[in-house]
Amino acid sequence: MNYVPDFTVVYMSTACEICGPIAWLNAAGITLAYAVGTIVGGLVIGVICGVILLFPVYYGLPLLVYGYVQFFRCTPLLVQIVWFFYALPMVGSTVGLGINMPAWMAAGLGLMLYMGAFSSEIFRAGIMSIDKGQWQAARALGMTYMQLMRRIILPQASRRMVPPFVNQSVLQLKNTSLLYVVAVPDLMYTSSVMTAFTYRPLEVYTFVALLYFVMLYPMTVFSKRLESRVDT
């Protein structure tokens, strides 16, 4: 096979209505917006759920949080996004609730809850990694629980939590590539449409891979530096 690559298709604007540099810029902006929004939302959910999971006995609210965390950690993100978009309206109509979730909301909710489930475990594990002797020493000094967390536990645990949080954020940015299944015009959706018009999947997807690399590589370098600081 004598295949001649032609990378001009990735920036040509005559191939289709959404092709061209502006389309790539819009798609990259949507991808980054979803990544940042779901990472921030997931971190908030993770902190709240992580605190609840620190309760010694799983009953009531901790049991519900534990079920949420395990469900979202143990099922594929692709299935979760599809379920929110297609299955939730069907379930809502069955029970008499008019739930009709648009694509952008279904994708964002799935990504945010997925990030929150992993963040909660990172937060809980970071708190539990602090030596129990420091907990006991702080209580012996008469510190309250809030003083113990603010002055002793969280300053140490946060240093251990930041690297895995950054690593999970890197994965979250890659997870946004699943947005295309519900037709959110991110990088992967734009590339699939462009491929359908140009019949040049090698060039288009290679270009998309380079875009993801440019966005993700600085985050991986930042994560490595954080890990080295924690180890010192």
Produce a short descriptive summary.
By secondary structure, the protein is mostly helical.
How would you describe the overall organization of this protein?
The chain is 75% helix and 0% strand. By secondary structure, the protein is mainly alpha-helical.
- Class based on secondary structure composition and strand pairing: mainly alpha
Number of strands: 0
The arrangement of helices and strands along the chain is HHHHHHHH
Our measurement of the CA-to-CA distance between the termini, rounded to an integer number of angstroms, reads 54 Å
Q: Tell me the major beta sheet.
A: none
Q: Helix share of residues?
A: over 70%
- What's the gyration radius in Å? 22 Å
Number of helices: 8
Beta-strand residue percentage: under 5%
Give average pLDDT, whole number.
Answer: 84
Pick out the low-confidence regions: none
The global form is flat
